[in-house]
Structure formats: C-alpha cells, structure tokens
Amino acid sequence: MSGVLDHAASAVLGWSVRLAAPSRRDWVEALRGELAAVEGGGAARLLWALGGLSLAFSTRRRSLQRPWYSWPALLRTSAFGLALAAVLVVGVIWSNVIVPSHESDDEYTMWYLVFYVGLLGYFFVSGLVASRPDNRVVTGAWAGAATAVLVALIVLVTFVVIDNLFLDVVMTQPDKLNGFRHSGLTSERDYVNQGLLPGLVGVPLVLGAFGAGLGALGGAVRERLDRRRSPVTA
Known about the structure:
80% helix; mainly alpha
C-alpha cells in the first residue's frame, strides 16, 4: 500500500510541476526533490505532494480570474499597439496634411530603416512587458501580434482617409505625382487606392507574423528573468 501511495505522490508532484506557473515552478520542483526525505510513510508523502498541487493550483487560479477575453486582459494586450498607433497617426496627419513634405522618400532611406528596426524592437518589448505569468511565451506572442496588427490597420486606415479626403494635397508629393504619371491610370484617386486597399489585408498579416515571433521572444526572455528572480526553496 505504501508503494502505491508513494507512486501517487510522485505522479501528483509531476503533474503539479506541469500545472504551475513559471514563477512557482521552481518551488514545486523543490517539493518534488524533497519527497523521498519525507518521513511517515506513503500517506505523509501524499499529503506533501498535495501541498505542491495546492501551491500550483492557487497560482493558476489567480491567473484564471482574468481570462484572455476580459477587458483588463484585452487592454493589457492591445495597449502597446494603441499607444504607438496614436503617435503614428499624429505623425502621418502632420507630414501629409498640415506640413506636407515635397521631398522624395529616397532622401529618408536611413531614417526609414531606423524606424523599422525600432518597430521590430517595439514588438519585442510589448511581448516582454505584456506577457502574463501563466504562459509568458504564448501571451507574449499574442501581445506582439496584437501590437503589430493594430498599428498596421490603424495607420493604413489613416492613410486611406487622408489620401481620399485630401487628395489634392497628397498629390503634390513628388513620389506620388511621378508614380501616377507612370502608372497609366487616368484617376488620381484610383492610383492612391490601388496600393492601400490590398495592403489593408496583406500588411497586417505579414507584420502580425513578425509581431508574434518577436513578442514570443520577449515573453521567453521575461520567463527566463522570472526564473532567475524566483526563490528555489519553498
């Protein structure tokens, strides 16, 4: 009978390790490592194992109090995307309507490169900060993907609105004017929309994939940092 209880205790602790959040996993592993030293026979070891299960379950229960579809969780996931999109929308309106540029984009190639590198880094940071303790990698990927998709959609919709409402101002830009002249189209509105409307689908998908990967990487780094900070002993 004692052997059966010992086996059950070992199985319970093994399950507890898989169930526990990363921040508590080392604690449960410590309980598992001390199982053989528990005196009092199989019953005492089973009670010890149930203590590890309770520790894992209490952590998981707190993480389930706010599921992914709750407003606090959705706000945490989308906050980075909404914040960056708001800044970029202001920049787009400023540079295309209020103080439109009359220089070619080729003159700003290096600045565009810096921007895109910073954007990818921003996806990484969103996963690092917005990931949740119950699963840093998965929730970090969601945060990164949500950030990328929100930024892409909001900025592209802003361009669609601006290019159609302020078409006369937009068509003073050298790149758009030269592109229209060589496009073979007779309508300036058709020209500005032919690239934007398909981009509303393609760009968010591509950027979302990058966001998910970099967000997952950020979540993995955060999980590693959590493990270093967590005490090993119970």
